[in-house]
């Protein structure tokens, strides 16, 4: 996914419309609290109910050379909470330019830093009692003549709406795949009507390997500062990373 920094204080992010895997997918739902269903965009007419689900990141590991080429700020680096050398990428990259253009002020970044430092560990999302994964007691259930022990697992999902915008952040907590513990994951979701294309998306199918532009400018820059705040609330490791990112940006703009 490439990013184009435009001199008139705009950032254009290329959004793939036909990817079936990866960090960005097109989904469809009728209401905010409904479960989003992936859309086969080359086979399905796109409607107002379609939206982009983007598992937006905020850094890139320097050792991942191919991915490192995707950032325009590969020399702005910090040591992540996991001990790996990282560079600014995606969210942190966007925020860097927004601060450089004074759309976001250094004072706002310093205020965010103070806010994150004051959050007690038990109020971070991975440790918060209201956001824990819940499992019911096992009960006997028979299916097709075979006895099983069944339980129900509930994963907490919280949604943050960005003011007047039809853009939300979804945060869901699940078990880590390759380690012990849980991990909150953040997804940025917005209607496909936010995308810029030469041909209107609504009412047609996506073309093979088609991309659309998501524009970051003065109309929505505040969303990206708030995303930085939300990431810093997810866990202690996320908070350490975000605080390091803030320091790197403050020192280099």
In short:
The chain is 21% helix and 31% strand. The protein has 253 residues and is of the alpha+beta class.
Trace the largest sheet across and list its strands.
Answer: 4-3-5-15-14-13
Distance N to C terminus? 25 Å
The helix-strand sequence is EEEEEEHEEHHEEEEEEEEEHH
Radius of gyration: 20 Å
Integer tally of domains = 1
Mean pLDDT: 92
The total count of helices amounts to 5
Largest sheet: 6 strands, antiparallel
Sheet/helix structural class: alpha+beta
Please give the share of residues in helix: 10-25%
Low confidence ranges: none
Q: What global shape is seen?
A: globular
Overall number of strands: 17
Share of residues in strands: 25-35%
Keywords:
four-stranded antiparallel β-sheet, 31% strand, 5 helices, alpha+beta
Describe this structure in words.
It is a single chain. With 253 residues, this protein is α+β, with helices and mostly antiparallel strands. The protein has one domain (3-129, 187-252). 21% of the residues lie in helices and 31% in strands. It has helices at residues 65-68, 91-100, 106-117, 222-232, 236-252, and strands at residues 3-6, 10-16, 24-28, 37-38, 50-54, 59-61, 77-79, 85-88, 134-135, 139-143, 146-150, 153-154, 157-161, 168-175, 182-191, 195-196, 211-216. The strands form five sheets. The chain has a six-stranded antiparallel sheet, with helices on one face. Strands 1-2-17-16 form a four-stranded antiparallel sheet, with no helix packed on it. Helix 4 (222-232) packs across helix 5 (236-252). The chain is globular and about 65 Å long. The chain starts with a strand and ends with a helix.
């Amino acid at each position: 996914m490439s990013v184009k920094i435009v001199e008139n204080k705009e950032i254009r992010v290329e959004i793939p419309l036909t990817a079936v895997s990866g960090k960005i997918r097109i989904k469809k739902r009728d209401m905010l609290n409904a479960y989003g269903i992936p859309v086969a965009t080359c086979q399905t007419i796109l409607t107002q109910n379609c939206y982009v689900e983007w598992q937006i990141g905020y850094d890139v590991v320097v050792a991942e050379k191919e991915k490192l080429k995707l950032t325009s700020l590969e020399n702005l680096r910090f040591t992540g909470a996991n001990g790996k050398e990282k560079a600014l990428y995606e969210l942190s990259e966007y925020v860097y330019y927004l601060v450089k253009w004074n759309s976001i002020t250094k004072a706002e970044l310093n205020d965010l830093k103070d806010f994150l430092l004051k959050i007690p560990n038990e109020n971070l999302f991975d440790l918060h009692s209201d956001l824990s994964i819940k499992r019911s007691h096992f009960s006997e259930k028979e299916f097709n003549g075979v006895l099983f022990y069944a339980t129900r697992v509930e994963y907490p999902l919280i949604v943050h709406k960005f003011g007047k915008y039809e853009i939300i952040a979804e945060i869901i907590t699940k078990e880590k795949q390759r380690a012990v513990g849980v991990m909150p994951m953040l997804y940025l979701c917005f209607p496909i009507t936010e995308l810029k294309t030469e041909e209107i998306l609504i009412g047609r199918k996506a073309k093979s390997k088609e991309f659309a532009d998501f524009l970051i400018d003065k109309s929505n820059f505040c969303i990206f500062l708030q995303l930085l705040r939300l990431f810093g609330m997810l866990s202690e490791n996320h908070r350490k990373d975000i605080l390091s990112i803030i320091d790197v940006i403050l020192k280099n703009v």
